[in-house]
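Supplementary Methods, section 5.1.

A reviewer requested that the exact input to the structure prediction be made available. We therefore reproduce it here, unchanged from the version used in the analyses.
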Amino acid sequence: MDFLGTPDIGPWLFFGFCIASMITAFVGVFTGTAGGVILLALMALVMPPSVLIPAHTVVQLGSGISRAVIMWRYVMRHLLPSFVIGAALGALAGAKTFVALSPATLQFIIGAFIIFITWMPKLGRVGGEKGRFGVLGFLATFLGVFVSATGTLLAPFIAAASPDRRNHVATQGAMMTFVHIAKLVAFGFIGFSIWAYLPLMVCMIATGTVGNWIGEMALARTTEQRFRSILKIFLTGLALELLWRSARDFGLF
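The structure derived from this sequence is encoded token-by-token as follows.
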């Protein structure tokens, strides 16, 4: 049954995705990461690969915009120009490049990288700040064309540069907004079409906005130490999951 014209999505699944968008948006704000990855995993259970990443990108774009608007006063705006330039270059490269690395290799590299940056925070401050975030903008967008949820890659670096948990969440929301815009431009060049999923994406963006709002209120009521601890736990768990998948795909067990 195609609910509201959405291919292979019935009413229960439609509203289930909308609720999932709200919950994962809340998780993304309160933990500083993970929300996009969890939502991607849930959508992957049903959506065909050809529309999964573009549709997830549109939903996350809406979530990023609403998060940045709600928490705009906390965005570290001086980091955005170099990041945006890097994101534009990453989208251009991603639209034209065939990635020779296997998914298992990519998962291993990203997982190991996140572990190092999370538990050795000084590495997240290596080099000049503008150059560092320019490179991150490129990598997050380039890799995002193929693996979609790259906010986890940014989180350790933003955490290292953020004096306050709200700066972290707001800045990550703003940066991922630019990443998703650049990716959608790249998808246009590649030729993806996801208009049939528009009703679902609109509803998921709306419920994601509610999740961001609730998450922002919860974030204001937690402590900086608790937020940093939760962020480390979630990043470590996600990194270990990537390493486990990589080992499995390499046939190590």
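The radius of gyration is 17 Å. These observations are discussed further in the main text.
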